[in-house]
Specification:
alpha+beta; 6-stranded antiparallel beta sheet
Length: 290
Amino acid sequence: MTREIALLTNPTAGKGRARRVRNETLPLLHGAGWRVRSIEGRDAGEAADLARKAVADGVDALVVCGGDGLVHLALQVVAGTEVPLGILPAGTGNDAARSVGIPLRDPAGAAGRLLAWEPRRIDLARSGHRWFAAVLAAGFDAVVNERANEMTWPRGQMRYNLATLAELRTFEPLHYEIDLDGEQLQLQAMLVAIANGPSFGGGLRIAEGAILDDGLLDVVVIGPMSKRELVRTYPKLFRGTHVHHPQFSRHLARRVTVACPGIVGYADGERYGALPLTVECVPQALTVLT
């Protein structure tokens, strides 16, 4: 079937990988008879405007070629609508694509998922008018993000590694006040994460076992631990085995408010806003081509 899609690319994603992925997949889409409106913005604002215009023009799908930041931008356009979102992963994290099983290093395979046109409805998280797909980080990981964003050197993953080491020297457990569907909690923790999907940060499975269409948010708490123990536990996040640590706990809720003085939350890797934040699960808010 002939379809018309908008293909929004962030050409700088993945150190230029997004441009290569787009160029590799375009012939596959054209060969299937699809009409592709290829768009890219000079900045995030222009990219969002172009995406909104394409959706308003009636494209059959909005497809993004980039990383989680571009997926996050696209969510603000198509969430709550009937317009499907397609993903050609080409960033450094790609947690949104990972959570729905899209091949991360196989552009032809990812394009094949689009061409198969098998839409799936999944939940999204929303705070105010802003949506996110994966995880809202609100603890040690968010503090690291804040420090990294203030650094001008180096670039890439090394900047986050250095920011992590710098924060480890002084970081202490934080005091949180959390409301889970009306249940009040006060606790000390290294981090609190509000998750719609299982992973963030390029495959850190902080909410291992989270289900994308259960109508619930997974609220993960990592309780106080020594810096040495935090370093030892970190690699387990890639396998999801940290869930067996005695300081790990998980709560399920439809609506969550989290407060912690001085903490700025990051969702889908993007700076989201200072706590307190109230997040709700919106069931089946997104159609994604998986």
